[in-house]
């Protein structure tokens, strides 16, 4: 507020006081490199003195930092993405930074467009939480600003940091748990062709083979196919299943209930991700927990370190198994015909 006029100062006030054009003020405030350093400093000092925008904003431009980061996600409706964002926000607050969120809504074209528009805000760095962002896009933006990816892109380019979950270890935990309960005919319901889902499927196959159960490896494409086999009493039907994620596990349990297949009495079900939904359905789902909030916080701290020293790193977090009611010891295991 301008104390002399009693109104909020405008860009025209700054231009008049600094003796420049309105367009030059706009360029200076945005940090446009075409504005000479001494001219920009004079304009920003004038903006600060008049109270144009906020003093912290003007001072941050003088320092060349906005103290803000952009977080780009696939879909804010996803519990996974919102948990990661909350972790980023927690760590950002600790570091005195603001967070601006872009939601791609599972549209690759929209994802890129939103990030381009958010770049105009002058963020200090970018956190990408998206399987839709390919290596070319990641590399392009990492060349412009410090950037950290949360998750497992197909091919992470040089110059980008990363925080990921050990998907292979997580699926190994699930398989070992079911084997310890006496199950041998353990199936897998796969997810998308994205790297995390592929790593989980490969780990299921490898772990089964390591435990001498390679002959029982079955990657079943749909929950309906699996439930139909169990409901029909097929001799080689699965007695347990490791799902690629919790949403698949929830869908499977719903179809099992509809078909009269008791979970976990006739079919033990393990999920992956530990979404809130996994604890809310009945039976509550045994699942692998990847610490999503901690992953978001690690990503922000890594970004802050990149801003300080320019070094990138790759961090992998360790998942844990959360035991609930959807898995139980094998009741009977009739011989395979």
UniProtKB/TrEMBL annotation:
<keyword id="KW-0805">Transcription regulation</keyword>
<dbReference type="InterPro" id="IPR000843">
    <property type="entry name" value="HTH_LacI"/>
</dbReference>
<dbReference type="InterPro" id="IPR010982">
    <property type="entry name" value="Lambda_DNA-bd_dom_sf"/>
</dbReference>
<keyword id="KW-0238">DNA-binding</keyword>
<dbReference type="InterPro" id="IPR028082">
    <property type="entry name" value="Peripla_BP_I"/>
</dbReference>
<dbReference type="Pfam" id="PF13377">
    <property type="entry name" value="Peripla_BP_3"/>
</dbReference>
<dbReference type="GO" id="GO:0003700">
    <property type="term" value="F:DNA-binding transcription factor activity"/>
</dbReference>
<dbReference type="InterPro" id="IPR046335">
    <property type="entry name" value="LacI/GalR-like_sensor"/>
</dbReference>
<protein>
    <submittedName>
        <fullName>LacI family DNA-binding transcriptional regulator</fullName>
    </submittedName>
</protein>
<keyword id="KW-0804">Transcription</keyword>
<keyword id="KW-0678">Repressor</keyword>
<dbReference type="Pfam" id="PF00356">
    <property type="entry name" value="LacI"/>
</dbReference>
<feature type="domain" description="HTH lacI-type">
    <location>
        <begin position="9"/>
        <end position="63"/>
    </location>
</feature>
<dbReference type="GO" id="GO:0000976">
    <property type="term" value="F:transcription cis-regulatory region binding"/>
</dbReference>
């Amino acid at each position: 507020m301008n104390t002399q006029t009693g109104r909020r100062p405008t860009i025209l006030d700054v231009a008049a006081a600094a003796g420049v054009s309105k367009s030059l003020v706009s360029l200076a405030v945005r940090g446009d490199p075409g504005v000479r350093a001494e001219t920009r400093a004079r304009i920003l000092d004038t903006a600060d003195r008049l109270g144009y925008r906020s003093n912290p904003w003007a001072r941050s431009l003088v320092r060349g930092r906005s103290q803000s980061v952009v977080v780009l996600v696939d879909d804010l409706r996803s519990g996974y993405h919102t948990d990661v964002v909350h972790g980023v926000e927690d760590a950002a607050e600790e570091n005195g930074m603001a967070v601006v969120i872009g939601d791609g809504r599972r549209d690759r074209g929209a994802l890129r467009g939103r990030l381009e528009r958010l770049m105009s805000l002058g963020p200090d760095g970018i956190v990408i939480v998206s399987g839709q962002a390919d290596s070319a896009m990641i590399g392009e933006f990492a060349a412009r600003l410090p950037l950290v990816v949360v998750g497992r892109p197909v091919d992470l380019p040089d110059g980008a940091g990363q925080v990921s979950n050990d998907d292979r270890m997580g699926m190994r935990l699930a398989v070992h748990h079911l084997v310890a309960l006496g199950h041998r005919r353990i199936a897998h319901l796969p997810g998308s062709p994205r790297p995390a889902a592929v790593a989980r499927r490969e780990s299921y196959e490898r772990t089964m083979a390591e435990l001498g159960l390679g002959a029982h490896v079955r990657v079943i494409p749909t929950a309906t196919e699996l439930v139909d086999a169990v409901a029909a009493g097929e001799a080689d039907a699965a007695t347990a299943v490791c799902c690629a994620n919790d949403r698949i596990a929830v869908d499977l349990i719903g179809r099992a209930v509809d078909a009269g297949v008791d979970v976990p009495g006739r079919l033990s079900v393990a999920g992956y991700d530990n979404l809130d939904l996994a604890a809310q359905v009945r039976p509550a789902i045994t699942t692998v927990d990847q610490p999503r909030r901690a992953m978001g916080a690690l990503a922000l701290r890594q970004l802050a370190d990149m801003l300080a020293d320019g070094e990138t790193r790759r961090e992998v977090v360790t998942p844990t198994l959360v035991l609930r009611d959807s898995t139980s010891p094998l009741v009977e295991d009739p011989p395979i015909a």
